[in-house]
Q: What sequence folds into this?
């Protein structure tokens, strides 16, 4: 696998962390880029959790291909990753986090867990995500705890809001940098507008 | 009439939504979530004065609660 060795030659001087296992919960706007970025950066094993299928309206902000419309997001992402990193182990669960069995949940252990779900509901499933990423239009939040004071009405089902590729990519870049550099982040950082980083 | 009888059924909880104010004798969490949904509000915070309430603070039996919608990023 000489080519794969060469692949990271220009990344090695950065002395980044080795990421053996990462879990991405939700493969929508944010999670799709997070999963792809982590794989491209060299994560060895990725666990992808999402019960949803790709719809045309997802394509404005995700790396999925038009030809993948109708596929499970997990399977489509697995294909995208393996096209680029054939040595990455990709484990997929086409179900909601809260419906994973104990055996399935045990696979998440020792992994960096990144929650990119669509709502602010804190699920008590025995696995505590390390990071939560959320966005709305050009607003973005990265946090290591979901706020106790946030409520979500009804079933917490999908909520359609304006979406744009730049915001989830922004969050994916942030989390990839945090995970691969080992940057200590135990906080909540909100960007009312992502271009606040320029001010 | 005794004081206890006077308080039966009294609406001591005021809930202020952006477009409507409602009153209840007490308010539990499932009712609050249903009310928010019926007002078209999905993600929100609840304030009693300046204090953001937590789920564990429910049921609430007195005071004025203000519902403040947040966006999907959790931002006001």
A:
């Amino acid at each position: 696998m000489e080519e794969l060795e060469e692949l990271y030659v220009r990344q090695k001087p950065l002395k980044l962390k080795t990421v053996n296992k990462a879990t991405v919960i939700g493969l929508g706007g944010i999670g799709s880029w997070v999963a792809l970025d982590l794989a491209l950066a060299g994560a060895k094993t990725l666990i992808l959790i999402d019960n949803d299928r790709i719809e045309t309206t997802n394509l404005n902000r995700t790396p999925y291909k038009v030809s993948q419309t109708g596929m499970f997001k997990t399977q489509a992402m697995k294909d995208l990753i393996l096209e680029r990193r054939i040595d990455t182990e990709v484990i997929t669960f086409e179900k909601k986090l809260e419906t994973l069995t104990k055996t399935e949940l045990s696979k998440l252990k020792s992994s960096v867990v990144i929650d990119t779900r669509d709502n602010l509901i804190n699920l008590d499933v025995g696995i505590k995500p390390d990071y939560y990423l959320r966005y709305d239009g050009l607003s973005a939040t990265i946090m290591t705890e979901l706020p106790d004071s946030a409520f979500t009405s009804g079933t917490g089902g999908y909520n359609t809001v304006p979406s744009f590729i730049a915001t989830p990519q922004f969050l994916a870049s942030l989390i990839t940098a945090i995970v691969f550099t080992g940057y200590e982040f135990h906080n909540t950082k909100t960007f009312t507008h992502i271009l606040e980083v320029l001010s | 009439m005794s004081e206890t009888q006077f308080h039966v059924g009294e609406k001591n909880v005021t809930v202020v939504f952006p477009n409507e104010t409602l009153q209840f004798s007490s308010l539990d969490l499932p009712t609050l979530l249903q009310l928010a949904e019926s007002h078209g509000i999905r993600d929100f915070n609840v304030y009693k004065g300046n204090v953001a309430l937590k789920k564990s603070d429910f049921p609430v039996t007195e005071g004025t609660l203000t519902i403040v919608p947040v966006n999907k990023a959790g931002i006001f």
The longest helix of chain A spans residues 166-181. Chain A has one domain: 19-198.
